[in-house]
Amino acid sequence: MRLPAPLCRLLVLCLLLAGAEAARAADWREALQQDVERLDRDTPGELGVYVKRLADGTTMSYGADKPWYLGSTAKLPIAVAVLQQAQAGSLRLTDELRLQDTDKVDGSGPLVWNKAGTAYSIDTLLTRMLGDSDNTAANMLVRAVGPERLERSATAAFGARATLTDFTQVRRDVYAELHPDARRLTNRQLVEIAAAPMGPRRVDAVRRALQLQPADLQRSDIAEAYARYYASGRNSVSLVAYGGLLERLVRGELLAPAGTARLFKALKFETRGDYRLEAGLPPQVRFIHKTGTQFERACHMGVIDPQDGGAQAIVLAVCAAGLDEHRVAGRLFEQVGTAISRALLPTGAATK
Questions:
Q1: For range 121-140, the mean pLDDT
Q2: How far apart are CA 50 and CA 236, in angstroms?
Q3: What confidence score (pLDDT) does residue 323 get?
Q4: Is 62's pLDDT higher than 90?
Q5: Burial, 234: exposed, middle or buried (Cβ in 10 Å; 0-12, 13-18, 19+)?
Q6: Whole-angstrom Cα distance, residue 178 to residue 214?
């Protein structure tokens, strides 16, 4: 049976449009892949990038299937677990937690220097943890939720097994690679040790805190201690898994609307900066995000245009390893942001 000529023309047009759309999808992935490969070649260490355009489900994945250490980007699943517990009625955002000496840990944020017994609402701690990346606030929230509930929540959000710890445990586990007795270091000792510059002086600070002789140490290289800790897989997931968490978040699958809105605000939906990926993105796009930084590790995770249930959202998960985690990582991530803009945001394509 021959089809009427108008119907034939319509079918041909539909096929042409479908082919053009498939070509455009392939074009952005190929272009971005080439840029990412070039950046990885030209930069020390390793680069991992995962990008997903939710409107059509197309993805670009480069080194994204292997586990990457999350650093402070682990604070987002902590926040999700807290808000889920609030949603379930197990706690309220107005509930207050009192700072304990065992919460205090070095790193980002000022709470470590505050007096034990100071009370903070859970809502304030969420803001401190995500806005200031305060490690002590994160420890307090992990204590409020409980390690087991955190692991269950994170595993469901990632769609993959995730072993997350508080930030005190990270320090103890790293220093335990120098000597196992480091697992008994007090929080105050950990803060004092962190005052020593990274390198031989940091190792010596651990040794003196443990009252050991140099020969007592299992190893004397802090870089090796961190490398062994990263290899353990704790506080690590693949970029594909982290991208899955971000997608579930913006689609409203993790939290009720009020919880999602609260998290968007804490993730800087209403403000824009020029740090890492942000520096390469057009200033007019909305962007929720969280960064993470630790010795020779850096990550930046986020979602471009997460509003409206993620209808036009673009999920980004980027990590790097084996490089200067500040200056070199910052410039690299800016270039990745520029490449993403060029491939997926033509109206705001950057020329940096």
A1: 97
A2: 15
A3: 97
A4: yes
A5: middle
A6: 10
Cα dihedral 238/244/246/250 (nearest 10):
180
Query: What is d(CA 45, CA 296) in angstroms, rounded to the nearest whole number?
Result: 9
Element (H or E) spanning 187, and its range? helix 187-194
- Do 63 and 47 contact (CB within 8 A), yes or no? yes
pLDDT of residue 11: 46
CATH of the domain spanning 28-70+235-352, picked from 2.40.160.100, 3.40.710.10, 3.40.50.720, 3.40.50.300: 3.40.710.10
At residue 2, the pLDDT reads 57
The stretch 282-296 carries a mean pLDDT of 96
- Res 342: pLDDT: 96
Q: Where are the alpha helices (DSSP H) in 195-302?
A: 200-209, 222-231, 239-250, 257-266, 277-280
> Helices then strands (H, E): number in the chain?
14, 9
